[in-house]
Design a protein that fits this description.
heterodimer, A: alpha+beta, 14 helices, 32 strands, 22% strand, extended, B: mainly alpha, 10 helices, 0% strand, globular
């Protein structure tokens, strides 16, 4: 049957559905005039469609309302949370159309309020720019005026919580991205010196992480912020950044190809001629190895990786053992199953399975495969043109699980895929160009399109439970999906993070079960996202109340009430979804108390005492890398000041006034604008040495 | 109250759906009375099983009741309800994926109605068309049912599928192409 007959048959159906375009009608008529088969078929399509439409048109069974009414029960239905915007500064109600958002942490506010104060009051944020939606958003009051007063009353005590909650809730909406107004930057910048924020900072939504644990003593000498993207805590998401020296601002830097193990603990980064094995769990590089030209690398499920070079050389890292496979073709995709020590190499039109130790080919399959991926139990999926499944353990092709490509469509454009079979339901998630994301249920033979991404989908992952999916794409968003329902659960726009604006995510994996996501950026930066999953987790009302009260205390940094916060946080039940965050807040309170004590001692000129407090903080707290680096940098600065001051005193005692003056001037320079004993003493000493100075 | 609810337009029902528990039940009752036959017909065609369709009908309206809060006032109810019905049906199909009934019923088309003219060839062609339609993926069949049987406009389909009108047109085009592929595949000896 020629292609034109195929097209004509499709057009016949479109004509029956009244969807035929005028130009197609002309083409169809021309074809029908010349093709007797299609001419004969034409009336049958109409009638067949009518037959199909008119069968079994019975009314709904009697008594269906009674059944339905009984099913409702006496329990009140779950009400979706309503969104109420409150200005972060004046705490007044805020219509969405009037709202502006902090460019870093998205805290909402009136434009006037923001411009008056000049910077975001969120702890550790201090962003001086705001963004606004391009299209006016629908006013909140349209959604339900009845409950608004009650909600305002409920949120009045914690306006900041409401504000943060709003931002978080906004990201959980399951609307397609094309309907979401994109933020646009407001050109106004505040150029004059700004007064410090006058209103208390907003508290993050549960379970938000604590703010940056230490405030730098002075603006001029402040170390780098401990958490450069801490503003995202407002979204209920926390990014723990770990960068291993790749210059992400250099446009010449070639992007990495990143892949993760199924458990997200280990990542393999391939760039040019280098392969890097990275432990997500420890935030540290395991090792770096040269990658042969045109080489392929793939992770096994145990965190080891195979680097495949030319002429079948396979290097197993990190052990470093070299195996030689009886294969000289260039593979375009590979799966390494560490448990069975087997490697599946895929190429157009064929796939070959090798035993890694002997190097011998175990079996070959005549199925295509531009890309491959494997589930933990050894089912490998190959794409292009059809979707094929091979059981590496048996080994055999499983025709029942394969999926034939649709006419005129192949899986050739699919850039990445993931497969999971941990729950018995074998699902494959395939990402494609222009935001195409499809979950294939290979057993039920269904496929479900997931709408959300607006750019190419570059990385996908399926959670260990088989129900949660995650994807990242060129639209620089990370999205979380319910694969059974085909609905979006959460989304995070990485463009909101200043530090990631020139970067894009290219791989994603679930980490720590389904509690975190590991995201690999093209620059080589690795992120860990912690997210709240209200769809699964639960918490009693009292736990939530305790948590929110404690968070308010912590966020206002009311040191006198830290004891109360500590009690409230320690009472939160272990199975509550707030438990993890509560523990983190407790750690943060400890850390904050120690760093406050250190700062107090230093301010009084007792560096030794300050150092002891700091060392205790560094030793006892469960710090992430960046926070630790910030604290160490702070301590180094203080040490430098104390040493310079001591040196000045010593030189002065030896009547070396010029050298002593230099040392004191160094103290003043290091402690510019600071208010502490070292600066006061140095100024005084310098004034005595150089009377004209004062 | 139920009578007055049944006379409400979509906007009135949407307001009612955001009210007290009694109001919500009245809104649900009115919606159920208004749409139960149409939804049941849609579900029966999609699921090809009346018992399953009856369960899916209950599931649909329970979900409608639970999702009243998420319904945007000003939008028509019909595409929204059919979106929920479609999802309920697809979930139901997925749950019984291992059940052989589906395949056997798919392979066995509904009874062909009498053909008074006795034109065996034409009847066979119609049967093949129906078989080809039945063999389409569930999502595609749902789309065609909503377009042809429920006569939903492209705008409403876009609302129901949470996508753009252009995407709906593309999906309809893809559905026609898949239909042609299936039909011609079976026609080729």
């Amino acid at each position: 049957m020629s292609t034109s007959c195929h097209e004509a048959t499709a057009l016949l159906l479109e004509r029956s559905l009244d969807d035929l375009a005028d130009e197609d009608a002309g083409r169809l008529d021309a074809h029908l005039a010349s093709c007797a088969d299609c001419r004969e078929l034409a009336p049958s399509v109409d009638r067949g469609l009518e037959d199909w439409a008119t069968v079994s048109t019975k009314p709904a069974p009697a008594g269906s309302w009674e059944r339905l009414r009984a099913g409702l029960g006496d329990e009140a239905p779950a009400q979706a949370a309503r969104v109420v915007l409150v200005c972060t500064f004046c705490h007044g109600p805020l219509a969405r159309a009037e709202a502006a958002y902090c460019a870093s942490c998205l805290a909402p506010s009136h434009v006037d309020c923001f411009l008056t104060h000049g910077r975001c009051p969120a702890p550790g944020c201090e962003e001086t720019e705001i963004v606004r939606p391009r299209a006016p958003a629908q006013p909140v009051t349209k959604r339900g005026g009845r409950v608004l007063p009650a909600l305002f009353a409920a949120f009045a005590a914690s306006a900041g919580v409401a504000a943060a909650f709003t931002v978080f809730q906004r990201d959980l909406r399951t609307v397609p991205v094309e309907d979401t107004p994109r933020p646009t930057r407001i050109p106004e910048r505040v150029t004059e010196p700004l007064p410090p924020p006058t209103s208390p900072p907003p508290a993050p939504v549960a379970p938000a992480p604590p703010p940056a644990p230490i405030a730098p003593p002075t603006a001029a000498t402040a170390p780098a912020p401990a958490d450069p993207v801490g503003g995202l805590s407002e979204l209920g998401l926390r990014i723990q950044g770990a960068n291993f020296g790749v210059d992400r601002t250099d446009p010449r830097t070639k992007p990495h190809r990143v892949s993760f193990t199924a458990d997200g603990r280990t990542a393999l980064l391939l760039r040019e001629k280098t392969a890097i094995l990275y432990s997500v769990e420890r935030s540290a590089i395991v090792g770096t190895w040269p990658l042969p030209e045109n080489g392929v690398g793939e992770l096994g499920e145990d965190g080891s990786a195979v680097l495949l070079g030319t002429e079948g050389t396979a290097k197993l890292v990190p052990s470093g053992t070299i195996h030689r496979l009886d294969d000289d073709a260039n593979a375009s995709g590979m799966v390494y199953l560490a448990a069975k020590r087997r490697v599946l190499l895929a190429q157009m039109g064929s796939a070959r399975l090798y035993d890694l130790d002997s190097g011998r080919m175990i079996d070959s399959f005549k199925v295509g495969g531009r890309l491959v991926s494997a589930s933990p139990d050894g089912l490998a999926v190959l794409l292009d043109p059809d979707l094929s499944v091979i059981d590496i353990g048996t080994p055999r092709v499983m025709p029942d699980l394969g999926e034939k490509a649709e006419p005129n469509k192949t899986f050739a454009e699919t850039p990445d895929l993931s497969v999971a079979s941990s729950t018995g339901a074998l699902r494959v998630l395939t990402g494609g160009p222009d935001g195409r994301l499809v979950v294939h249920d290979l057993e039920a033979r269904t496929r479900l399109g997931l709408v959300g991404h607006t750019g190419d989908v570059l990385g996908v992952a399926i959670g260990p439970g088989g129900r949660l999916g995650a994807s990242v794409g060129l639209d620089r968003t990370v999205r979380l999906w319910d694969l059974e329902q085909g609905t979006a659960l959460a989304a995070l726009d990485l463009q909101r993070v200043n530090a990631l604006r020139n970067d894009w995510p290219c791989a994603v994996a679930f980490f720590a079960g389904e509690a975190q996501l590991a995201v690999g950026m093209a620059s080589g930066t690795m992120l860990r996202l912690e997210f709240d999953r209200p769809v699964v987790a639960s918490a009693s009302e009292s736990d939530e109340r305790k948590y929110r009260s404690a968070v308010r205390i912590v966020e206002t940094r009311d040191e006198s009430r830290y004891g109360v916060a500590r009690t409230l946080l320690s009472e939160i039940a272990e199975d509550s979804r707030f438990h993890t965050s509560a523990r983190r807040y407790l750690e943060w309170i400890d850390l904050d108390e120690k760093t406050r004590a250190a700062r107090g001692a230093y301010r009084k000129g007792d560096f030794e005492a300050a150092r002891k407090f700091f060392l205790v903080a560094l030793g006892s707290a469960n710090l992430d890398t960046e926070t630790r680096a910030g604290l160490e940098k702070q301590l180094a600065l203080w040490e430098r000041v104390a040493t310079a001051y001591d040196e000045g005193v010593k030189l002065r005692g030896e009547d070396k006034h010029d050298e002593a003056a230099t040392a004191f001037r160094l103290v003043l320079w290091l402690e510019k604008d600071a208010d502490n004993a070292y600066r006061t003493r140095a100024e005084k000493a310098l004034g005595e040495i150089e009377p004209g100075r004062r | 109250m139920v009578d007055s609810a049944s006379r409400c337009d979509d906007r009135g029902l949407a307001m009612l759906a955001r009210g007290s528990r009694a109001d919500r039940e009245n809104a649900l009752h009115a919606l159920h009375e208004r749409m139960k036959d149409e939804v049941f017909g849609f579900l029966s065609r999609l699921l090809r099983d009346e018992a399953l369709a009856e369960d899916a009908l209950q599931e649909t309206f329970l979900n409608v009741y639970g999702s009243f809060d998420r319904f945007e006032p000003g939008q028509p109810f019909r595409p929204w309800v059919f979106k929920i019905a479609r999802n309920a049906a697809l979930m139901s199909l997925r749950k019984r994926k291992k059940d052989e009934r589906l395949e056997t019923q798919a392979a066995r088309p509904d009874e062909v109605r009498g053909d008074p003219s006795g034109e065996a060839v034409a009847t066979e062609a119609r049967v093949r068309v129906r078989e080809a339609l039945e063999r389409l993926p569930d999502e595609t069949r749902a789309l065609l049912l909503q377009r042809h049987v429920l006569a939903m406009k492209v705008t409403d389909l876009a609302e129901s599928f949470s996508c753009t009108e252009r995407t709906v047109r593309n999906r309809l085009h893809d559905a026609a192409s898949a239909f042609a592929g299936t039909l011609l595949e079976r026609r080729t000896p």
